[in-house]
Amino acid sequence: MADKRHATRLLSLDVFRGITVAGMILVNNPGDWGHVYAPLLHAPWHGWTPTDLIFPFFLFIVGVSITYALGGPIGQQKGVAGKILRRSLVLFGLGLFLNLFPKFDFATFRIPGVLQRIALVYLACSLIYLRTSTRAQSRLIVILLIAYWLLLTVVPVPGVGYANMEPTTNLGAWLDRTLLEGHLWASAKVWDPEGLLSTLPAIATGLSGVLVGTLLRSDRPEADKVAWLFAAGCLSVVSGVIWDSFFPINKALWTSSFVLLTAGLAMLGLALCYWFIDVQVRTSPGYRRWTTPFVAFGVNAITVFFLSGLIPRILNMIRVTRPDGTEVGAREWMYQTFFVPYFTSPYNASLAGAVTFILIWVVILWWMYAKKIIIKV
C-alpha cells in the first residue's frame, strides 16, 4: 500500500537508515560470491568486519524509529498493541516468503532470517517502550546482556557437557537444533546466525536505539544531545572492547560485547548525521545536498531490502543459453557478459556488479521519493 511521506521525520535518521540499507544491499549482492573483498564479508567466527556492523545498525535504527512512531499520537491510540503485532507478523511473513521462494519446500525451508529477527525485535521493543520507563529499559538491557553472557559461558550444553562458544556445540546451536531441526541456515544446517537464543541480545540492541530515540525526542538543547550521544557511544565501544577479552565479539552469536561495540558505533554514526544534517543545516543549508539518495533508501528501507533479495532469485529462474551451449541464470549471464570482460581483477568485477545493483535502486527509489511515495509494511 502506498502512502505519502510523513511530515514529521528526523532527516538524519532516514539518512542513517538509508546508508545502512545501501550497505546491506552491497554486501548481499556481489557479482560473484567467490571473489569478494574481505571487508565486505562477515568475520568467519570471532571478531568483526564492517559488514558485521550493518544488521545491528539496522536494529538500532528500528529502536530509534519506535520512539518517533509510538511517542506521538499513534502510541496513544486504542489497539496500538494489535497494530504492532500485525506489523510484526507481516515482517515475519515476508522473511518466510523470501526463505521459501522459489521452491516453497515447506519440509526444509529456513524459519529464522533477517526480516524475522527484525520482526521479533520490533515487537519486543515496541511493547517494552509502551509499558516501561527509560530507567526500566536501561536495566533490561543490562539484564539481557549479562544473562546471555552467563548462558553461553556457564550453562552446560546438553549432550556436550560443558559451556562453550563453538559454532556447532554452543547453547544457542543446541536450542536451534532442538526446536528448529531441518529449518536452519542451509550453509550451517545445525545452527543459525539469526537463531532463537541470540534474539535476546538483539532485543538489547533495539532497546539501545529506543533510549537514543528518547534522548533525541527530549527537550534538551541539540548540542547536549550530540554530546551525550558521543559520550555514550564512546563508553559503549570501550565497554565492548573490554568485554571482548573474555566474551569475544561475535556477530553470529550476537554476543554481549558485540552488542556494546555495535550500539556504540551506531550512536557515534547517528550523532554525526544528526549534527551535520539536522543541526548545522540551519546555518549551512548545503549540508543536506548529498542526503537525497540515502533518504530515498531510508524511507523505503524494508521494500528495497525485500525486493533486492527477491529480484536476483527471479532473474536466476530465467535461463539463458550461452554460445558454448550451456545454460545459466539471467543474473549470472548479465554478470559474465557486462562485467567480467571489462575488469582485469575478478574482485573488482564482483564489486562493480554490486555497486551497479545499488545504482539501479537509487534511480528507482529516487523516483519514488520524488513522487512522495512510501510503501508501508
UniProtKB/TrEMBL annotation:
<feature type="transmembrane region" description="Helical">
    <location>
        <begin position="142"/>
        <end position="163"/>
    </location>
</feature>
<keyword id="KW-0472">Membrane</keyword>
<feature type="transmembrane region" description="Helical">
    <location>
        <begin position="349"/>
        <end position="369"/>
    </location>
</feature>
<feature type="transmembrane region" description="Helical">
    <location>
        <begin position="195"/>
        <end position="216"/>
    </location>
</feature>
<feature type="transmembrane region" description="Helical">
    <location>
        <begin position="228"/>
        <end position="246"/>
    </location>
</feature>
<feature type="transmembrane region" description="Helical">
    <location>
        <begin position="289"/>
        <end position="311"/>
    </location>
</feature>
<feature type="transmembrane region" description="Helical">
    <location>
        <begin position="252"/>
        <end position="277"/>
    </location>
</feature>
<dbReference type="InterPro" id="IPR012429">
    <property type="entry name" value="HGSNAT_cat"/>
</dbReference>
<feature type="transmembrane region" description="Helical">
    <location>
        <begin position="53"/>
        <end position="72"/>
    </location>
</feature>
<protein>
    <submittedName>
        <fullName>DUF5009 domain-containing protein</fullName>
    </submittedName>
</protein>
<dbReference type="Pfam" id="PF07786">
    <property type="entry name" value="HGSNAT_cat"/>
</dbReference>
<keyword id="KW-1133">Transmembrane helix</keyword>
<feature type="domain" description="Heparan-alpha-glucosaminide N-acetyltransferase catalytic">
    <location>
        <begin position="9"/>
        <end position="151"/>
    </location>
</feature>
<feature type="transmembrane region" description="Helical">
    <location>
        <begin position="114"/>
        <end position="130"/>
    </location>
</feature>
<feature type="transmembrane region" description="Helical">
    <location>
        <begin position="84"/>
        <end position="102"/>
    </location>
</feature>
<keyword id="KW-0812">Transmembrane</keyword>
